[in-house]
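As described in the Methods, two query proteins were run sequentially through the folding procedure within a single session, without resetting any intermediate state between them. The first query and its resulting structure tokens are shown here.
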Amino acid sequence: MSDSIVVINPNSTERVTAGIDEAMAPLRIAGGPKIACLTLAEGPPGIESQLDADGVIAPLCRLIRARDNEAAAFVVACFSDPGLFAAREATRKPVLGIAECGILTALTLGHRVGVISILARSVPRHLRYYSAMGVESRIVGDLAIEISIAGLADEHLTLKRMIDIGARLKDERQADVLVMGCAGMARFRSRLQASLGVPVVEPTQAAVAMAIGRVRLGWV
């Protein structure tokens, strides 16, 4: 079996995949698993609705089956965790979702978790997921910067709004740890954490870190 961790961006925006790949740099360590970041060509430019999330399930599972022989684990790199349970039926390898892993990681770093989302219409979908996970009592807020996937290319505006929303979560909701609620935000983690002074979880990093542990320890 290969030791590669295959990270799949289920939207079709290559810039998002490039940002995810860049965020993997600290996790590419000597002797560790290879980390390959792929784009789901059939996906929408951004997963911004339940319809978008549901629509990528079938092509995502096809891609996982096609890459199964070369992967030790898969990561679904979208904060909706689209198709996560179907994907786990498409392979016997571990499949991790970044929302689940990001939130679980945040729970080890603080008691009151705040989430920075891209669009307000995504928030109800996230809230349903937190409830399904049984962690809704630890989520003190999920607030949106109201910038689309395409709009994240404006780094100055995106970072400013992320800092503003992060500060609201920290000061008004007393969040002591923040989670970035979109894989497209990956490149802003260090700057956001430095500005706000609380731990900031980049969920794809959290998921890949867990995948590395599972591969290295044989938890498959």
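Immediately afterward, the second query was submitted; its sequence and tokens are:
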Amino acid sequence: MATSVTLDLDQLRSAIQDEYTEVASCPWKGFHFHTGRFLADRLGYPAERVESLPDPVVESFAGVGNPFSWGDLAPGEQVVDLGSGAGFDALLAAQRVGEDGRVIGIDMTPAMLAKARDNAQLLELTNIEFREGFLEALPVADESVDVVISNGVINLCPEKATVLAEAHCVLKPGGRLQIADIIVGKAVPEDAKADIALWTG
């Protein structure tokens, strides 16, 4: 189902990349949203899982909830993280699924992907990889994963139904979605939907 919003998708993606490049490179700068350890604590991530992580793994975290609150991951599970950013959730997932599991993080921002890959090396995790791509066309094989997680990213995509359809395609039969995101309770005016500044914050 296509949105009726008149929006320059390339311009929107460029604006989002600019915003999150700053989150990757200058997480201490201050944004209109919280980041880092304060945010992870506020969103209910277990302290024992976060405290031991080096600062670079946590500092650019900018989620809106905790996708693991819907259920923990099991050893051996295959996981995809939609909009993985600097890798905070994906790296936590990789620790949970263990050597027999696998995590794939998908993001469109090169600076975030570079930081996520560095963070995986920092934690010496070999069961994780980060791929560049759009959530509307996932670079993941159909019916190949047990769990799709996402944290505060689908709200940035105009074609939400396409993103969810892609997530469904990559899930194995019986797989599950564990999504934390923002939902607007009232109808948004058409002119506001077309304002890229409002999409990026």
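The chain has one domain: 9-200. We note this only descriptively and draw no conclusion about the first query from it.
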